Amino acid sequence: MENVRTRFAPSPTGFMHVGNLRTALYAYLVAKSQGGKFILRIEDTDQERLVDGAVDMIYRTLEKVGLKHDEGPDVGGSFGPYVQSERLGLYKPYAQQLVKEGKAYYCFCTKERLEGLKEENAFGGYDRHCRDLPEEEVQRLLDAGTPYVIRQKAPLDGATTFQDAVFGEISIENKEIEDQVLIKADGFPTYNFANVVDDHQMGITHVVRGCEFLTSTPKYNLLYEAFGWEAPTYVHLPLIMGRNEDGSVSKLAKRHGSTSFAGLLEEGYLAPVITNFIALLGWAPKDNREVFSLAELVEAFSIEGVSKSPAVFDYEKLTWFNGEYIKAMGEEEFLQNARPYYKEVFGEEEKPWAVLQSILQARIAKFNEIPGLLHFLKELPDYPVDFFVNKKSKANLENSPQMLTAALDVLRQLPQWELDTIHEALIGLAQKLEVKNGTLLWPVRIAAAGTLVTPGGAMEILALLGREEAIRRLTLGLGKLGA
């Protein structure tokens, strides 16, 4: 089997969009599932669109999702440099070689002439005005220092056909293909031209990209043909759509929700969850499994599983995934992720973290929900007295003062303030009073929390409040009941 080499070649022009991240992930999976190499190349020739800090953003994102590149600007490799602006000397000689071989030509048309053409003919491209200029005329213009671009000669008839690994055979009539610019007037290569030269020089065997590039692929292939190089295997990925309010779908945009990796992290989604979720946008494993680690994705991935149909980015599904990941976490990992949010509620104070984990882990879909769920522990809300009434628990305004008084007596005498001892004492008390557990625990929980809905029950809340604060709150509850 050939040595599979894929590349991710982003332009540092801003955020890492989920579409870009999916391209990176699939390029990584195509390589790694076949024991190949994954290369990072930075395409920064569009100098006007460069954004400060965007290169760091690319590195940080790849690191967070675990896509480790084998070659790239920061790790080196034998096909460098891996930054396009550092390769500028490479491209023009290739274009000039094509001019020599009659496969490309110098075009001296002015900007004004080209703009005039656009106005005359909204749908047509360049009219090939300079394609057949006499050699002496070309030399005269070059000697005079006339600005020029270099254009490729596209075939005028027939069709260009290529095989895509996902979409099958694609054919484009050559008359639809413009004589594309290879070298711009400033001497910089165009994106398409630099791409082909770099991919060839770096031995890229599989080009993974979005299906919006399907129709421009024949242009790339004409270049491979002109140089006599072997074209790579193309893997075009389906569109990513977002669901609109009316139930219809359209191309994923900001109005649907966060569309950047950084935005999703900020909203509380975990990096491995985003990776797992994005892997399933356009690829399906052979079985119906949904939860994968990156290593498991490498194991399960195959190009045959990539779909042609557009994939819908479903935020509800992403939230479900996040919750499943949290449920599966070990104690240490859960605490590590939860700690910044605990600090918002408790500051630096130490708490029985295992108790918090026992009440939160199955309830939250994102860690940033923690402060909202625990705010009552920080400050007792002002609550109405009728919160003490609950039909199901048979708790009412008559028996609640009695329950709280008895609970206070028992709790004040506890030797240790721990969940187990609190639990044992209160269950024992309910038996002694000959009431249902709920009849005792409902008023205790309301007085301790001051809110109807809490993660965890009365015992957990008492354990988390600590002896002093718990007794203070239960005493206030008694006062509210007029006892």
Can you put this structure into words, describing what you see?
This protein is mainly alpha-helical and 483 residues long. It is built from 19 helices and twelve strands. The strands form five sheets. Strands 3-4-7 form a three-stranded antiparallel beta sheet. It has a three-stranded mixed beta sheet with strand order 11-10-12. Strands 1-2 form a two-stranded parallel ribbon. Strand 5 (159-164) and strand 6 (168-173) form a beta hairpin. Helix 12 (331-346) packs across helix 14 (370-378). The chain is elongated and about 110 Å long. The relative contact order is 0.08. The mean pLDDT is 94.
- Alpha plus pi helix count: 19
pLDDT under 50 segments (min length 5)? none
The biggest beta sheet reads: 3 strands, antiparallel
Euclidean distance between termini CA atoms? 83 Å
